[in-house]
Amino acid sequence: MRFAHFSHVWTKPGMTPHERYEQLWREIELCDELDYDFAFSVEHHFTPKESWMSSPNLFSVAAAARTKRIKLGAMGHVVPLHHPVRLLEEVALADQISNGRIEVGLVPGIQDSYFRNFAANFQDRRAITEEFARFMHAAYSEGGPDRPFSWDGECIKATDLELSVWPVQKPGPPMWMQSRDPPTLELCAELGMHTGYFLLFPRSEAASRYGPYLENWKRHGQSGTPNIAYSTVTFVDETDEIALSKARVDAGNAYKGFFSSSDDWDEIRAKQKETAAYFEMRGDHGAGQIILNLLDPDYLLEKDLVLIGSPETVTNKLRRWSQDGLFNTFFGEFNFGSIPEEALMRSIRLFGEHVIPNLRDHEPF
Length: 365
Hints:
- By secondary structure, the chain is α/β, with parallel strands linked by helices.
- It has a single domain (about 1-250, about 305-360), classed as TIM Barrel (Alpha-Beta Barrel), CATH 3.20.20.30.
- It has 13 helices and eleven strands.
- Strands 1, 2, 3, 4, 7, 8, 9, 10 and 11 form a nine-stranded parallel β-sheet that branches.
- Strand 8, helix 7 and strand 9 (about 230-235) form a beta-alpha-beta unit.
- Helix 2 packs parallel to helix 3.
- It starts with a strand and ends in a 6-residue tail after the last helix.
């Protein structure tokens, strides 16, 4: 198995953005020392009371300056908000600055408020993102020094591109697209892109989506085994009782910002119902039920949707979850709610010293 430190870079009351980022660097430096494989961030915009992460390439190069080996990247870039050539250049530059440690996550985005403020195309966001994945894959595979690259697509046009800087990694940084959508997973298999899912998608349903992805990966002649990731909030302490006493309430508040930046619970509940109805309309009944209960810590614990406990408990749960949920990579969001830094850093250390070594050789599929 492989392991990532994952961060929305949640707003912290009493901290400035600079102080919050200084704390984040301390987290990632520790992960680098403890043999975590990756550190990933999101791309969120216009959310001063939720996430303070609007530029994951800046996250990557700043983290690279403070670490030695850990892989870094976005999970993921909201593709339609970027000029495709500019994003191609920035990823290549970040890969050079980090000496080949960049991983590239791509997402179409779900918040229309991001798109309005950028005057970006919300309606065609999936088509734009899928074409960009093909564009980036082809550019880094076929272009290079003294090899200009051209692309004539529906959404992207480029003629005789000669980037000033090309990636260190050949043919380019590994690419990811987190998705549970079958056509998107087919694209991921075709292009050799890694994938994964968030706690909103029930693990019991994962095999029906990711089993075909694994088959298609082989059918397309991709080498090795792809990364399929699962992500949720994580807290580890010496015993289950101590861990639950410190993190249970915060686990229930971790995703409140998804629904509202206020403390008006009527407003929050209304948004939960609206979001759940959207998932129900798509046929995702399981996701709809999780959305309705996402802020209830007892529900999250009863349904095993958050990872809280002693090193032994967390290890055993991940071993079982990974087999049931068909994932071989885990994204732990360690810094959530109001957990003090001392407890946060102990959680990251216990996970790195006692969980990762016991699961490193575990192969769920």
